[in-house]
Amino acid sequence: MPLLVLALWLSGALSILFNSAVAQHLAGAIALLIVIFSCLTKAGLNRWIFGLLASTAIGLIYHSQQWSAIAEGLERAAMISAFLASLYVLRTVIQTAPN
Question: How many Cα atoms within 13 Å fall on the side-chain side of residue 49?
Answer without folding.
Answer: 9
